[in-house]
Amino acid sequence: WHHAPQFASASVDPLDRLNAVLDQVYSQNGATLADVPSAFQTSDVHMSDVAGLGTVPRDVARVCELTWECAPHPYGPNQHPNDKGYALIAQAIMAALRRN
């Protein structure tokens, strides 16, 4: 767990690049990509104080808030969204559908 902040920081750029490629491929084929990364604030590395976590980057706090990653056993750690995360994903999908 003590390497998690470094891993989280190092993952922002590759994930941003992957999402840009996915957006380009989808757009070239007439599809709109739902902007889930923005909804999850995956690039927000500003530090914030979070109960139970201490001072962590905002994107890490959002992962803990919207997935089972920081949940205790038997639910976590698990990168899948929780109800709040799935609701946010659904909102991003609806926004993409409205743009079309």
**Helical amount:** 55-70%
Describe the strand arrangement of the main beta sheet, using strand numbers: 1-2
Globally, the shape reads globular
**Radius of gyration computed on alpha carbons:** 15 Å
Strand coverage percent: 5-15%
Number of strands: 4
- What is the average per-residue confidence, as pLDDT, rounded to a whole number? 86
Largest sheet properties:
2 strands, antiparallel
Q: Which stretches of 5+ consecutive residues score pLDDT under 50? A: none
Number of helices: 4
**H/E element sequence:** HHEEHEEH
Helix/strand/pairing category: alpha+beta
How far apart lie the N and C ends?
42 Å
Task: Briefly characterize the structure.
The protein is α+β, with helices and mostly antiparallel strands and 100 residues long. The chain is 56% helix and 14% strand.
Describe the structure.
The protein is of the alpha+beta class and 100 residues long. The protein is built from four helices and four strands; from the N terminus they run H-H-E-E-H-E-E-H. The strands form two sheets. The chain has a two-stranded antiparallel ribbon. The chain has a two-stranded antiparallel ribbon with strand order 3-4. A hairpin with a 3-residue loop joins strand 1 (47-50) and strand 2. The radius of gyration is 15 Å and the shape is globular. The protein starts with a helix and ends with a helix.
